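call fold(seq) -> tokens
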Amino acid sequence: MWLQMMKSKIHRATVTEANLNYVGSITIDEAIMEAVGILPNEKVQIVNNNNGARFETYVIKGERNSGTICLNGAAARLVQPGDTVIIIAYAYMTEEEAKYFTPKVAIMNEKNHIVQMIDHEQEATVL
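ret:
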């Protein structure tokens, strides 16, 4: 049996741009992508903390150390610059792999700098 588990998470990133006239996707600062192990073209789920929207798209590599979090195409209708989002990537693994897998979670500040890397989330933790 395969389980779909959280692999990577960018927690509370700030949307820097919404570009309706682009083909589609989310552009993420390359350094942030590397820190959490997200690859270009990887499917991610976006959760908008401001309006509750949840949607999926794929990742485009953005300029390194720019802090870029830009929603492109139709997804741009679901966010506004300044919104706080959570970006989650998942991976399929066996139950045995899942028992020992450690996700990479980046806690962001309002300038999209990583302030903490964690490998688990405690119940009811406010970050």
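The mean pLDDT is 95.
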